[in-house]
Write a structure and sequence with these properties.
Helix content: 25-40%
Distance between the termini: 102 Å
Largest sheet: 8 strands, antiparallel
Number of strands: 15
Order of helices and strands: EEHHEHHEEEHEHEEEEEEHEEH
CATH class: Alpha Beta
Shape: globular
Radius of gyration: 28 Å
Strand content: 15-25%
Number of helices: 8
Length: 338
C-alpha cells in the first residue's frame, strides 16, 4: 500500500516513495542527473564493450532478426489444439529469492526457469551480470529494474527487462535458446505452453493480494511509470481445470497452488505479462519436450441430447418390429419349397 509519494519530473529530484513489492516495502531515493544509456545499471556486465555495441545497435530489433533467421525455430503458438484436463511439468523446483534478493522476484523466477532447463546459474549472478538496474528513477520498469533488488529499495521490472536479461545470458553461454515475450496472451492460453513442457514466467501479486496500477512518475525518456502494489513474479508449471487450480513456483513460498480464477484476474491486472524460454541447455532448440503429467478428459458414449436418446429408442423399436416379418417370410419360403 502506498504511504506517500511525490511525482518525479525530468528535472526535479525524487523525494521518498514507499510501496510494497516482491515481499517487502520499498523506498526509491533521489536523483536529478541526466541519464546515460550506457550506465543505466549500477552493476558491471560480462563484457562492457560488447554490451555498449549491442545497445547502440538497437539490440531488441537485432536479436529478433537473429531469432527469426535461425535454422531451427520452435512453434510456440496453439493452433486448434484440445488441451488435456490437467497438465503438470514434472520435477520443477522453486528458487527462493530471500535472503539475497528480497525484492528480486523477477530475476529469480527467470533463474529457476533456466535451472529447470539445465542451465547452471544462480539468481545473484543473473541479477549482477545480466539485468538492467536503475537506482535513480530515470527510466521505467519496461527498460530497467527500478531500485535495488538486493535490499528493500526495489520496485521491480516488466517482461521486456527479463527477456533482455535472458538474451544476454544466452549470448554469453553461446546457446541458441531464446526467450519469447508472450505479454498480452490470455492466461488460459498459456496452458498450451505448460502442456508442451515449457514453464512460463508470469506476473501477479504476492499471495494474490488485490492491487491496481498507480501512477508514480514520468521518466526522463518521457514514459510514464506505473506500479502495482505487491507486484510479484512466479513461474507457471501446471494447471488442473477440474480442480480449478494452477501450479506455481513462487519465489516467496515455494512450489504451491493458487485458485485459477483469482490468479487469472490478478494476472490481467498486471498487464498479462508472460515470458517463455525456447530450448534447453543440453540440446538447444533441438531439445525434447520436458516430461509432463497429464489427465485427459473422460470420453462418454452416452447420447449427448434428449433428441438423440429418442431417436435411438425409435430405431431400436423399429428394428424389433421388423424381425417377425423377416421370420414370417422365411417360413413362407420354406413352405413353398415343400
Amino acid at each position: 500500500m502506498i504511504n506517500e509519494f511525490l511525482k518525479i519530473t525530468a528535472v526535479a529530484a525524487v523525494a521518498a516513495m514507499t510501496l510494497a513489492s516482491c515481499g517487502n516495502r520499498v523506498r526509491l531515493m533521489n536523483s536529478s542527473t541526466e541519464a546515460d544509456a550506457d550506465t543505466i545499471s549500477n552493476v558491471s556486465y560480462v563484457e562492457v564493450e560488447e554490451y555498449q555495441q549491442q545497445e547502440t545497435a538497437e539490440p531488441e530489433k537485432l536479436i529478433e532478426q537473429e531469432v527469426t533467421t535461425e535454422k531451427t525455430t520452435i512453434d510456440i503458438y496453439q493452433k486448434d489444439y484440445d488441451l488435456p484436463t490437467s497438465a503438470v511439468i514434472d520435477d520443477f523446483k522453486t528458487v527462493m529469492q530471500n535472503p539475497e534478493l528480497p525484492t528480486g522476484c523477477e530475476i529469480t523466477a527467470l533463474t529457476q526457469t533456466l535451472n529447470f532447463l539445465g542451465f547452471d546459474v544462480d539468481k545473484v549472478t543473473m541479477c549482477d551480470k545480466y539485468m538492467n538496474i536503475d537506482m535513480n528513477g530515470e527510466y521505467t520498469m519496461n527498460q530497467c529494474y527500478i531500485g535495488d533488488p538486493k535490499s528493500y529499495t526495489g520496485f521491480g521490472c516488466s517482461s521486456p527487462v527479463i527477456c533482455k536479461a535472458a538474451r544476454r545470458f544466452f549470448r554469453v553461454e553461446k546457446s541458441d535458446c531464446y526467450p519469447v515475450d508472450l505479454t498480452g496472451t490470455d492466461f488460459q492460453e498459456l496452458f498450451y505452453q505448460v502442456e508442451q513442457g515449457r514453464p512460463v514466467v508470469v506476473w501477479a501479486t504476492m499471495y494474490l493480494l488485490d492491487t491496481k496500477p498507480e501512477y508514480i512518475y514520468t521518466a526522463k525518456n518521457g514514459e510514464e511509470m506505473w506500479f502495482c502494489t505487491y507486484q510479484h513474479c512466479l513461474t507457471l508449471y501446471g494447471y488442473d481445470l477440474d480442480k480449478q487450480i494452477v501450479y506455481l513456483a513462487d519465489p516467496l513460498v515455494g512450489n504451491t497452488t493458487y485458485p485459477l480464477e483469482k490468479f487469472e484476474r490478478i494476472y490481467d491486472i498486471l498487464g498479462k505479462q508472460a515470458v517463455v524460454i525456447c530450448g534447453d541447455a543440453e540440446n538447444g532448440l533441438d531439445a525434447e519436450p520436458k516430461p509432463v503429467t497429464k489427465s485427459e478428459p473422460e470420453i462418454t458414449t452416452e447420447p449427448e441430447t434428449e433428441e438423440e436418446t429418442i431417436m435411438t429408442e425409435t430405431e431400436t423399436e423399429s428394428e424389433t418390429e421388423t424381425e417377425p416379418e423377416e421370420t414370417e417370410t422365411e417360413t413362407e419360403t420354406e413352405n413353398s419349397d415343400d
